[in-house]
Each structure stands twice: as structure tokens, then as C-alpha cells.
Specification:
single chain; alpha/beta; Rossmann fold; Transcription Regulator spoIIAA; 4 domains; 5-stranded mixed β-barrel; 20 strands; globular
Length: 476
């Protein structure tokens, strides 16, 4: 799935203020917290839930370095975010040095991977929780606040999806929200550590997912993104209730008040024809799909254990465009997989050109402990990987600019997220996303209150990574 790098968050996305229940818990000790999040949308959503749960328990958000409790939600998909976690823990120790009772909780994939090793390397760490342990983290943090000599680890995988308490806070939620539909992965791609850090696939019950979606829509959500490591295989594990992912899409799309529906991430090996057809039959399913390729060489795809070849992938692309001609595609690309030749790499470059991705998240291959690829011979030098990555990203920038330029003159509706950093003489600048996932900036009269509303616009100019537009109707 697309991987944002790092998110600094003290107030969750899906709440505006703490629940009234927080007033019933007396703050016997300093109960301030701050959350730092690395990685994908699933981690962002996990951190949002944890923040709401802590606020329900009487905790209050505080800036970095000022909170007694700092939570680091980690990602180990690549090497760089893991190293950033270690660096961040050092900065936290420096920033909170004058608070003798300050402590740290480490969660997410690196926590699952390193486990109790954090306790010896970083004395300020008092809780380590894995992805399945998240549901119990609020109770554990309550204990740690009251028992300053205690250290806890929550690293066991559960057999079923670890459902969390339904905490939404008070007031409205953002217009665009995330909903987890599953946890873990059964694919075991050669390079990927996810099955080891998030466990085997566990689907949520359909009714529980729909209840969460309804609750969010009742509180003001207008766009929902369904999240999973491989959403296409939803319901196919032993925890499924017989609902396929295509059926789930239709059930969620039919919920009153839902204007837009998105999902990440599908695996090309098992995307069902019914899912492809949904892009042509569900009007609120947005015409944007992140379809990871990873490599354009059949030989490398086989070494990666991806279980599809380029012919299969391109048939999916053709079918998607037949169902929804204006669909926009993005992808993940790994450069420099062990044994990748220049010919293999050029096949990946050809694939980018053939598909014409609007965006791609590209990375140099790095060994992840315990994966099959770690044991493969013919590792490429850092210099070769970086040189190829630069060439690929130069091509992708050109493709992205072309896709954005094609939007000029088109009328679209933008879901406004908030004020933009851009300034101008014509009023306030707002930003949001169009149905294709493009970031759009538009100038509106000063003092406009349009957060969370849809605005018809006409795209006037394409920038390098965003669009400038002019208002073309009243917000709704």
C-alpha cells in the first residue's frame, strides 16, 4: 500500500475533542501523551484509534517533548523507517530528560520484530506492543502510568481479528476516514516482512465493518477508504463470514450518506472480475486504484514470489480501463532486487511507460530479517540501486506531470480538507482531493468555512505534484 513516511499526531484524525467519559477518570498522575507514526495508512488509522482510546481514559494530547508518554508507532517494511525509529527514540530521551517520569511505548511492525529487545537498548521504553496487541494497549498504558516500575510487552498474535473498542470521541469526524477490514497477510512475498510482523490474514466480520462505517457516516464522514494488506483476499481466510471483497464493496457503497469509496491495497494475483466490474457499476467508487507491480520483469516477479506475470498484470489494467475508461493507476516499485540485471530493470521502465502510472512509490531493495530474499545471492551495490532508482523516478515524474496536465480544463468535485499553505491576493487558499486522488488547490473568498464539503472546480493549471483550480459552483 502507499506508504506515507512519518506523521506527527497528538489529536486523532477521527475526533475533535475527548469524550465526556474522560471526565469520569481522575488524572491521578500526569496523563499527557504524544504519538509519532511511521508507515502506511493502516498505521495512521491505528494511531488515530489509540489516541481516541487514550482520550476516553482521561489522557490529554501534548506537543513533542512535553508529554509524559510518547508513543512511537513503527514500520519495518523498509530499512530506512526502522533506522528513523532508533534515531527518534534518542531524540525523545533528550527532549524529555527533565521529566523523570517520562516514558515511551513502541508499537507496530518494528515492535513486533524487535520485541523486548527495546527494553535493554532504550531504558525509557516501558511498553512494546505488536499489531495484534494494539487493542490492549490503552489498558496497559493505564497501568504503566500508575505503576512507574512496571514494563509490559504485548507481542502475541491472536487467532481472530483483534477487535477494538468503538471509540469515536465527541463531535464530527473528518469528511475522509479509514476503516480496517482485515489484518495480516498470507502471501509471503520473498522480500516482505509483513506476514511476520502483522501475522497471518484475519478478516473482520462484515457486520462489524458496516456498523463502523455507519457510525462514521452518522458523524459526518463522506468518504471512506477500506484498508487491508491484501483486500482482494478479504473473507477467504478461516475467519471470513462468507462475504467476498466484491460483495463488501457493494454493501459499503450502498450505505446512505457515502459519497466516495476507496480501498487499498489489492494484490494483482487474486483481484476478482467482480471487483474490476465494480469500478463501472458503483458510482461512488472512485476512479483511482493503487495496483502494486513491484517489478516489470517476469523473472524478477517469480523470484519475488508475486504469483503473476506481466501478461496477467496488463490484462488486469486493460479490464480496469474497459470498466472505467478514466481510471487512474498508481503502483509500488522495488528497484535493485537481488539478481536484477539491467535488462530486468529496463523491463520495469517499459512497464511504467506502458501502464502510464499517475504516481508510483519506488524504493531500493533492502534486506528484511527472516525473509526469503535475505538469503538470495547476487545482491546489488548501493550505487547501482540508487542510480536505477533515480532513472525510474525521473521517468515517473514525467508521467505524473503528463497525467496532471491532462486534467487542465476538466471540471471535477474536490472534497476540501483544509487551508492550503499557498497564499494569494484573491482570498484564502484551500486544498482537497478530486475523485482521482489528485491534490487540488483553489482560492476562495476570505473567511470561507468549507472544510469537509465538496466544491465543483475547473482545473486551471497543473503543477509538479498538484493542481490549481477555480471555483465552478457552490459548495455542498
Amino acid at each position: 500500500m502507499p506508504r506515507p513516511d512519518r506523521h506527527r499526531s497528538t489529536v486523532p484524525r477521527n475526533t475533535l475533542r475527548a469524550s465526556a467519559q474522560a471526565d469520569t477518570i481522575p488524572p491521578m498522575h500526569d496523563r499527557t501523551f504524544h504519538i509519532e507514526t511511521f508507515g502506511c495508512q493502516m498505521n495512521v488509522n491505528d494511531s488515530d484509534w489509540l489516541a481516541r482510546a487514550l482520550m476516553e481514559r482521561g489522557f490529554s494530547p501534548a506537543p513533542f517533548g512535553e508529554a509524559r508518554l510518547t508513543i512511537v508507532n513503527t514500520c519495518s517494511v523498509r530499512d530506512k523507517p526502522e533506522q528513523k525509529v532508533y534515531s527518534l527514540l534518542g531524540r525523545i530521551r533528550q527532549a524529555t530528560g527533565k521529566k523523570p517520569d517520562a516514558f515511551v511505548a513502541v508499537g507496530g511492525c518494528v515492535a513486533q520484530q524487535i520485541g523486548s529487545g527495546f527494553f535493554s537498548r532504550f531504558p525509557q521504553v516501558r511498553l512494546v506492543f505488536g499489531t495484534d496487541g494494539l487493542a490492549m494497549a490503552p489498558q496497559a498504558l493505564d497501568r504503566l502510568v500508575e505503576e512507574p516500575d512496571l514494563k509490559l510487552s504485548l507481542l502475541d498474535f491472536s487467532e481472530d481479528y483483534p477487535e477494538r473498542d468503538a471509540v469515536l470521541g465527541q463531535g464530527a469526524v473528518p469528511a475522509s476516514v479509514f476503516v480496517n477490514i482485515m489484518q495480516g497477510c498470507d502471501n509471503f512475498c520473498a522480500y516482505c516482512i509483513v506476514p511476520y510482523t502483522r501475522g497471518r490474514q484475519k478478516s473482520r466480520a462484515t457486520g462489524t465493518i458496516l456498523d463502523e462505517c455507519r457510525a462514521l457516516l452518522d458523524r459526518g464522514a463522506r468518504e471512506i477508504t477500506l484498508l487491508g494488506q491484501n483486500v482482494n483476499s478479504f473473507g477467504q481466510d478461516s475467519h471470513g463470514d462468507g462475504t467476498t471483497f466484491a460483495q463488501l464493496l457493494h454493501k459499503v457503497a450502498a450505505l446512505p450518506g457515502l459519497e466516495r469509496l476507496r480501498f487499498v491495497t489489492p494484490h494483482p494475483k487474486d483481484i476478482a472480475p467482480e471487483v474490476v466490474e465494480a469500478f463501472g457499476t458503483l458510482p461512488n467508487l472512485c476512479p483511482r486504484l493503487h495496483l502494486p507491480l513491484q517489478a516489470g520483469s517476469d523473472r524478477i516477479l517469480k523470484l519475488m514470489g508475486r504469483r503473476y506475470d506481466m501478461a496477467r498484470y496488463l490484462r488486469i489494467v486493460d479490464d480496469l480501463r474497459a470498466a472505467r475508461p478514466d481510471i487512474v493507476l498508481s503502483s509500488d516499485i522495488i528497484v535493485g532486487f537481488p539478481g536484477e540485471t539491467e535488462e530486468d530493470f529496463m523491463e520495469t521502465m517499459d512497464a511504467l511507460e506502458t501502464v502510464g502510472y499517475a504516481a508510483s512509490y519506488s524504493f531500493c531493495y533492502s534486506d528484511r530479517p527472516g525473509t526469503r530474499a535475505e538469503m538470495l545471492p547476487d545482491k546489488l551495490s548501493r550505487e547501482v540501486k540508487l542510480e536505477r532508482l533515480e532513472r525510474l523516478q525521473t521517468l515517473q515524474n514525467r508521467l505524473t506531470e503528463r497525467c496532471l496536465q491532462d486534467m487542465v480544463g476538466r471540471k471535477v468535485e474536490v472534497l476540501l480538507e483544509g487551508m492550503s499553505r499557498k497564499t494569494g491576493d484573491e482570498g484564502d487558499s484551500w486544498q482537497g482531493r478530486d475523485p482521482y486522488g489528485n491534490l487540488v488547490n483553489v482560492a476562495l473568498p476570505q473567511g470561507s468555512d468549507v472544510r469537509g464539503r465538496f466544491l465543483p472546480v475547473v482545473v486551471a493549471q497543473a503543477k509538479k505534484h498538484s493542481l490549481l483550480a477555480e471555483q465552478a459552483g457552490a459548495p455542498w
